[in-house]
Amino acid sequence: AAGTVPRRRSPARVMGRGLPLLLLPLALLAAPAWAEGGTAAAEEVQIEVLHLPEACSPKSKKGDLLNAHYDGFLASDGSKFYCSRTQNEGHPKWFVLGVGQVIKGLDIAMMNMCPGEKRKVTIPPSLAYGQQGYAQGKIPPNATLIFEIELYAVNKGPRSVEAFNQIDKDGDKKLSELEISQYLKEEFARDGKKRHPSAHDEILTDIFKKNDHDGDGFISAKEYNVYQHDEL
Fold first, then answer.
1. Has the keyword Iron been applied to this entry (predicted)?
2. Number of folded domains in the chain?
3. In principle, which of 45, 67, 106, 116 could form an S-S bond with 152, CB 3.0–4.6 Å?
């Protein structure tokens, strides 16, 4: 459906559907690379600031969790192919900036943006859907896209220092199965959603399978901080 156009086909779209927000990227890592047509180096995202609030803090950076509404248009004829306000009962979209949960052009366009700011951005094909286009979203090949964006919130992302330290109870700069297990229990209790008894163990196993790269039974600060927006 056209409603999915600005977002990649990524497991990260399940954010908020039962997996704790801070641990979601541990279990569900970045989306596969998006095929780009043309030469990205020769093309840039054009940004026009429509509204800038007097208080502009904090400014968005890679790894932050953003909440925004955006409409998408084809530059060729001005037709609208996407409107976030018609999706998910009109709620603004949540996504982590700069990690591939949206097309590359939007990741670039929403850097250094502050809460309350509005932008109109023009994204070349090489930073959108390239030579292939996206037929399901009614985006033709080599299409230049225009987005009107309103940013509501800039929060620390799931891979921030604060998130790591919250899980790392003993402060040894690595996450044990016990620490993550306890954190899962706390998050499950906090959101109050009903889950199958096996859900806890399945998520815990998946987290270590996908993140404990050296197989030592711990998730190190380096293994955790894949977004690299803070130094742990």
1. no
2. 2
3. 67
